[in-house]
Amino acid sequence: PPLKPPRSGGESLRSSSLSSAGISFSNKRSVTPQQAGEQPSSPWKGRMWVFSSSEPASPPGIFLPLPQPVFDAINALEPYMPETAGMWAAGVVGVMLFFPLLRMVTARSVPKVIVPPSDEAEASDKLTNRKRLAMESASPKDKARPAEIVCWDPCTMQELGTVKAFTEAEVKSAVARARKAQEEWAAMPFSQREHTLRVLLRAVLDNLDTIVRVACRDSGKTKVDAVLGEVLTTCEKLRWTIGNAQQWLKPEYRESGPMNLHKTSRVEYTPVGVVGAIVAFNYPFHNVLNPVISSIITGNGIVVKGSEYTAWSTKYYSRLVRECLAASGAPLDLVQIVTGFEDAGKGVIEHTDKVIFIGSVGVGSKVQQHCGRLVKPVVLELGGKDPMVVCDDASPKKIAQLVCRAAFQNMGQNCAGPERYVVYDKVYDDFIARVLSIVQQMRQGDPLSSPFVDCGACVIAAHLKYLQGLVDEAVKKGAKIMTGGYIPIKGSRLAEGQFYPPTILSNCDSSMRIMQEEIFGPVMCIARVKSNTDEEAIEICNKCEFALGAAVFSSSKARASRMIKRIHAGMGAVNDLEGVTYLSQSLPFGGHKQSGFDRFAGPEGLRGLCNVKSIAEDRFVYHGSSFMPFPAEISYPSTGQGQGFLAGLMGLLYGYGLSGKIGGLFTLLKASVTKPKMEETLPNHLDDVKESKKA
Looking at the chain, which terminus has fewer C-beta neighbours within 10 angstroms, N or C? Predict the structure, then answer.
């Protein structure tokens, strides 16, 4: 469509002030839909913004899609633009583009790191000639091989080999190597830390297929689950850390106060030394890389102990990290990844400087006790029992897919993931019908056998009996199984691996164990809000000892936000999964109550891996001593003026109202000029010494 005529006489915008910058605007199509025999299907199609120094009839330069309303706005404003507007616009755009382009040209190049698979299990989706373990007896511990960890694929039960089980002494040695490397690392410039993480970020993308395959094989998740939960989150953490960490770790200047006007006050964040991390099995790649990234950027060394149930994958991830350290010029021993049982965990706790633990409440309380005896700081992330509230004005149709992703992502083995679905009576039946129709069409099996598999296996075989126990107890108390809720029978297809079918339970209430204990499995527990009131929903949510995350869905954002504030949780999401808070890596991750304490991620997580040092410093130097002379009134030996002087000073600084401050000033001046007389002579220190010697 033709432009509306600007100014007068049908003069085109080409002749306007913007042409002074050599910029022309046009909505001409390079190939019109009419020429192609079709009509535009959207307001964007065929309308272009042309940057060109040529006449409108000439072949245009760079095209940018621009909808017709924007052209109308340009034409409406064009008569009011000054003749030099184009020059100014071009200048601003040039400046905006110049510095990013300059940084790109002058930036340190990031080497490409490719870490090839070392065996068939890392290289291929299908394994051949592998021993299959019996699910009933499969265990990482083998009495015949106490120094090794037995590893297998939880979907096929095929043995993957063994991994070294570190002893406490070997972990101590690994900590010593990391400590030596950390001393060198802390002395390097911050730009080196950022460069190392850039190398790691590129390596993650360049080795994506192998990283995903290894995670799937070791933990039984689908490739989509692996990319979402393992890799995407890791890349986002790397991006945020590279771009933002320095501003949160540099010295922070703060107010000095009226008593210290002549001084500056700052906080400095220095590395703790060597961080020890003991991480869970649910996301073997991200759980290892997460503390590694934070430790590298904060100038620390780190020793990470992965779970014995996903020890196999750490072989590849260790090689990946080590190659990135080498390629970036970082000390090779800066990151130590160890595997093992209780002895290895004890070694991490005993010999590192700060501990991060991700796991169960039972083990976490033991870690806390151990750290308490050592007076050692610890971060505890102990899981959750997150509620998802579906209000009476929410749309089950719109959120059904999101709800199912929340429940069955990674087979429900998520720290921050909903396990209690608190649904208002008004939408209760519709909600169940919609999620049930989705779950009934989901496919379960070996994720590496087909990209169409939706659900994989549980990491720990014994966990299936725990899940069944929770389901059975809930059913006895009145819960109803809508689908799933059983351990596959021997001889069936799903009995060949550690599979528990996606399960939906309705009619759940807070008296059931399944509504109080962490499930960590593919079970959706739905509770009804009978009164359709927010008060009842919040009461159900808070009737639990966990407080990690929460989510509320409502057509009213203000209502959902108010409810989130009242629900006990360390993280909350309005009209989305609480897991989205983790995609905002500027936010701290963690909870309270039985979910643990302290945080990782965000500025709080980075600063948590630092020793905090407060520094006060004179603004001006006065012959190497304090700029302000020490008041004679409070100097030694006492002149008797001290109390009056300080009382006046406090009145001047903190007195109530103007009269209080003036009164303080007079008291201060009076105390400064009036020296009380000593009524009796008091012996000084030398007199006491002489008397003592004489005695």
Answer: C
As a three-state string, the secondary structure of 437-464 is HHHCCCCECCHHHCCCCCECCCCCCCHH
State the pTM of this model.
0.84
pLDDT band at 686 (very low <50, low <70, confident <90, very high): very high
- Please report, for the chain, how many H helices and E strands are present, in that order: 22, 22
Phi, psi dihedrals of residue 545, rounded to the nearest 5° = -85, -5
Any idea how long the chain is?
695
CA-based torsion, 661, 663, 664, 670: positive or negative: positive
Whether residue 24 is predicted with pLDDT greater than 70 in this model: the reply is: no
* Catalytic-role residue among 323, 381, 517, 633: 381
DSSP assignment of 487-532: PPPTTSGGGGTT----EEEEEE-TTSGGGTS---SSEEEEEEETT-
Q: Is the CB of residue 78 less than 8 Å from the CB of residue 23?
A: no
User: Cα Rg for the chain, rounded, in angstroms?
Assistant: 33
Element (H, E) at 192: helix 190-206
**DSSP states along 195-236:** HHHHHHHHHHHHTHHHHHHHHHHHH---HHHHIIIIIIHHHH
Active site residue 578: no
Centroid of chain to Cα 226: 17
Q: How far is CA 554 from CA 375, 396, 531, 558, 657, in A?
A: 45, 10, 16, 9, 49
* pLDDT confidence of residue 18: 43
pLDDT tens, position by position, 337-373: 999 999 999 999 999 999 999 999 999 999 999 999 9
At 80, is the pLDDT very low, low, confident or very high (cuts 50, 70, 90)? low
CA 322, CA 96: separation in Å to the nearest integer?
Answer: 38
Statement: residue 683 has pLDDT above 80: yes
> Closest Cα to residue 207, out of 324, 298, 293?
324
Question: pLDDT at position 316, please?
Answer: 98
From start to end of 25-147, where are the E strands? 48-51, 62-65
Catalytic residue (one of 415, 455, 508, 541):
415
Secondary-structure percent of the chain, ordered helix, strand, coil, rounded to 5: 45, 15, 40
Q: Would you say residue 231 has pLDDT above 50?
A: yes
Handedness of CA 563, 566, 568, 574 (dihedral sign): positive
Are the C-beta atoms of 487 and 506 separated by less than 8 Å? no
φ and ψ at residue 352, rounded to 5 degrees: -95, 175
- DSSP letters spanning 525-576: EEEEETT--HHHHHHHHHSSSEESEEEEE-S-HHHHHHHHHHS--SEEEESS
What confidence score (pLDDT) does residue 66 get? 53
CA distances from 621 to 175, 263, 617, 650 (A): 43, 10, 9, 27
120: annotated active-site residue: no
Distance CA 435, CA 399 (A): 9
Q: Tell me what percent of the residues of the chain surpass a pLDDT of 90.
A: 79
Angstrom CA distances, 414 to 271, 582, 635, stand at: 30, 12, 63
> What are the start-end ranges of the H helices in 255-378?
284-297, 313-328, 342-351, 361-374
Cα gap 71→77, rounded to integer Å: 10
Own/partner pairs for 559-568, CB < 8 Å, 24+ apart? 559/391, 559/393, 559/534, 560/389, 560/391, 562/534, 563/389, 563/391, 563/534, 563/537, 563/538, 566/538, 566/542, 567/387, 567/389, 567/538, 567/541, 567/542, 568/541, 568/542, 568/544, 568/592, 568/593
| Tokens 């934070």 belong to residue | 294
